[in-house]
Specification:
This protein is mainly alpha-helical. Helix content is 61%, strand content 5%.
């Protein structure tokens, strides 16, 4: 058999690994992957040392040809195109009469019926689509094999854009070999070439109705058969989905009766839609999708679809409708941009829009704009007729904002609740559901600062139950009870006897679809477990909650859940696990978001632990500004305590003032544990401070901190001393460029020095770092913050 030229072909190492594992134990291998995933090339490379017979279902006669003597393996390609069913018995007989021969079936579609018995009898091993995707190591091997010399920055960028798709990677390598550099124009041409191939090999094989069906799915990241039927009402949806599974592998199961298009094909469908559809047809596609999302209650994706087709009228109508669907439960930052797209006069003529705008601007940290819209609502209510239904709605929204706006520190919560409840009863209107959490893992530092109300909150009894249920939603009084429990925890009390109430509240909130209260209650339960030293129990609860929220699609909580898990890692001294989260944590410098403050505080804790004191102080200064503007007591105490710990480790005497201010803010409310839970990290500061004046509270904080220190002696432990490595300014520059993936010649050209000079500097750097290669040098520079260290010196 003639050998096909396969120079510079790299197959995914996972494919090679699985092939090596199953080759001796299975007679049949089934490669299932879409067009452009490299099935044929992979099969030929894997069998290049074997005597192989290649056959294709596009050449039906080849399937009936008897095997020649000495054949070790048979490749049967394009199985999705098998139309001649007479060939099936012949293939089946060939397998059974040649047990010593391996058979590799390559298909874009699912496993056909005639091969299922072999799978059931453990004679067939299946290779799923994702195994063919190239990872970073595979991509790097491609570049090496092609003899290409490009910077690490370009490598990272290329891999990210190709996303491991073998067709795109192969085209990338070919184009780079021709041009010698990477550019956006080259990438666009590469994708056009890849999409043209998919268009010819897959899309054009379908009839017009099937192509229309696929295009109408473009707006959906995932969809069910019911959703597909809504956008394609005159289509046999099940038959089309089955055919796509049988012939293409373009779809994958996301859940039972829920499907997802693989990324390359969803991108292709976007491309072909704009290539072949008119503007009116594109508008129709997104309009149908928006209606489908609305019916599913997915208002955010509906808004995205209307935005695509610039339908401002539908955006406005949907925002009004959405404002009654508990907008305080999250998605603030997703919604804000849509409100800001509306003309101001449109907003000022609808109570719900004004209310939402006031809330969203406030949550974005712009209290001035939030108050501006609050006053706009007051004026709007006054100019309406007393009998106008819209005036009743405006009054309802004003009561809501009185509770909800973070800058409105309601000093008379009980009377406010009574007035709101009376208003709701008198007008026959339900109050908008109000959330106390602001997506935080607790109530006291949630959407409002409740510290000034603690005395009032702790005195609320059963006689006020009906009023709080009316204002805060069904079982609103239980919310107050959990809040009381949290306050006792923050005072350093053991709340073990009250945990059952928290658990029952959590389950009740889950049944009511109140994830905000559920998450806050979970945060309190976890803090209680930490206080008792039960970190393993806390981690187990955290993992169960994380999996549950992820499965329920509660994406808006995932960031704070991950941050809460990272704090547990710090208590458990799992520094590397916490450090890995740091890479994906939100950036406060480019866009500070008030709802991310729990993540910012967690990030600062990790930075202090790693010795990145300057970064931590910059971040804490930003969060402190928010806490000051909103007069937020607990946030301020936490920030000041972390500032004190950071400055203490930096030998900056300002730590004394920071810690004194934290103690002063905490003492009126006896918030012992807000400072004490920093344990080992804060104990030496408390010992050294020697605070004057009343000592009872100060001593209680020290005692509480020592308890945490006993449970978690390595919490936020100072980093080990870094090796004393001195790099010259030139060596620093060379190391920085090495860390960016540049080769010696590129560094020489950039610094305008001889190649031999660069080689000498690299040699000296390797000696000083005690490493043997550039990858290890980059790791050492990152591990010891070496460049930052030398810059500070």
């Amino acid at each position: 058999m003639a050998k096909e030229k396969t120079n510079h072909i790299v197959i995914a190492k996972q494919v090679q690994k699985r092939f090596d594992t199953v080759w001796d134990d299975y007679q049949i291998l089934f490669f299932q992957a879409p067009c452009g995933y490299g099935k044929t090339v992979s099969a030929k490379m894997l069998l290049k040392k074997k005597n192989v017979s290649y056959r294709s279902c596009r050449q039906p006669r080849s399937l009936l040809t008897p095997l020649a003597p000495g054949i070790e393996a048979v490749i049967i390609d394009d199985l999705q195109d098998l139309e001649n069913q007479n060939a099936v018995p012949a293939i089946d007989a060939m397998i059974k009469t040649n047990p010593e021969v391996h058979f590799l079936f390559l298909s874009r579609g699912a496993l056909p019926d005639f091969l299922i018995p072999y799978q059931m009898s453990n004679t067939l091993a299946q290779f799923e689509p994702q195994i063919f995707i190239l990872d970073r190591d595979d991509f790097g091997k491609c570049i090496t094999d092609y003899g290409l010399h490009i910077s690490q920055t370009d490598i990272d960028r290329m891999y990210k854009e190709a996303n491991g798709w073998p067709a795109a990677v192969t085209l990338d390598m070919g184009r780079l070999r021709e041009t010698g550099h990477f550019s956006g124009e080259a990438r666009m041409q590469i994708y056009q070439d890849a999409y043209a191939y998919i268009n010819k090999e897959v899309f054009r094989r379908f009839d017009r109705n099937m192509r229309t069906f696929l295009l109408r799915l473009v707006p959906f990241e995932s969809f069910s058969a019911e959703m597909a039927h809504i956008v394609c009402p005159d289509t046999d949806v099940r038959a089309y989905i089955n055919r796509i599974f049988r012939e293409t592998s373009m779809f994958v199961f996301k859940d039972v009766d829920e499907y997802r298009l693989l990324e390359p094909f969803r991108d292709f469908l976007h491309w072909i839609m704009y290539q072949e559809c008119t503007q009116e047809e594109i508008k129709e596609i997104y309009y149908r999708a928006a209606l489908c999302f609305e019916l599913q209650g997915d208002y955010l994706n509906a808004l995205k679809c209307y935005e695509k087709i610039h339908n401002t009228q539908m955006i406005s109508e949907l925002l009004i409708k959405y404002s009654g669907q508990r907008p305080d439960f999250g998605y603030y930052y997703d919604l804000l941009k849509y409100y800001r797209q509306l003309p101001e006069e449109t907003i000022k003529n609808n109570a719900k829009l004004i209310c939402s705008m006031s809330m969203l601007e406030s949550l974005d940290g712009d209290y001035e704009r939030g108050s501006y819209w609050y006053q706009a609502l007051v004026k709007y209510e006054h100019r309406l007729d007393p009998d106008d239904q819209e005036r009743i709605e405006a009054g309802r929204c004003l009561y809501y904002l009185d509770f909800a706006l973070p800058q409105h520190n309601h000093k008379d919560l009980v009377n406010g609740a009574l007035r709101a409840a009376a208003y709701a009863k008198g007008t026959g209107q339900e109050m908008p559901v109000f959330s106390l959490t602001g997506l935080q893992p607790g109530f006291l530092s949630g959407s409002k600062d409740l510290c000034p109300l603690l005395e009032e909150l702790m005195s609320i009894g059963e006689d006020k139950k009906a009023y709080f249920d009316r204002v805060f939603g069904k079982h609103g009084f239980e919310l107050i009870r959990v809040l009381q429990c949290e306050y006792r925890l923050e005072c350093g009390e053991d709340i073990s006897d009250r945990l059952l109430m928290g658990i029952s509240t959590m389950h009740e909130m889950q049944r009511q679809d109140r994830p905000d209260i559920e998450f806050a209650t979970i945060g309190i339960l976890i803090r209680s477990q930490i206080a008792k030293g039960d970190i393993v129990g806390a981690l187990n609860l955290m993992q169960n909650v994380y999996d549950d929220f992820h499965e329920r699609g509660l994406k808006v909580y995932m960031g704070n859940l991950k941050a809460l898990r990272c704090q547990l890692y710090l208590y458990h001294n799992e520094i590397e696990a916490a450090k890995s989260w740091l890479k994906t944590s939100p950036d406060s410098l480019t866009s500070f978001k008030t709802l991310y403050r729990f993540q910012y505080l967690t990030k600062a804790m990790i930075q202090i632990t790693l010795g990145k004191i300057d970064e931590a102080l910059i971040l804490l200064a930003q969060v402190y500004q928010f806490a000051e503007n909103g007069d937020r007591t607990i946030d301020r105490i936490q920030i000041l305590t972390l500032m004190a710990i950071a400055r203490y480790r930096w030998n900056n005497t300002l730590w004394r003032q920071n810690l004194s201010d934290a103690l002063e803010a905490a003492e009126p409310y006896q918030l012992v544990a807000v400072i004490g839970r920093y344990g080992t990290a804060v104990v030496p500061l408390l010992e050294e401070l020697k605070r004057k004046g009343r000592k009872s509270f100060y001593d209680a904080v020290k005692e509480n901190a020592r308890k945490y220190a006993v449970h978690y002696p390595h919490f936020m432990e100072s980093p080990k001393a870094q090796p004393k490595i001195h790099l010259t300014p030139m060596e620093q520059n060379v190391l920085r460029l090495v860390c960016q993936g540049m080769r010696n010649q590129e560094i020489a050209d950039l610094l305008n020095v001889q190649l031999s000079t660069v080689k000498t500097h690299v040699y000296h750097i390797m000696q000083k770092l005690q490493v043997k290669n550039r990858t290890a040098a980059r790791e050492a520079a990152e591990q010891y913050h070496l460049l930052d260290l030398n810059e500070n010196q």
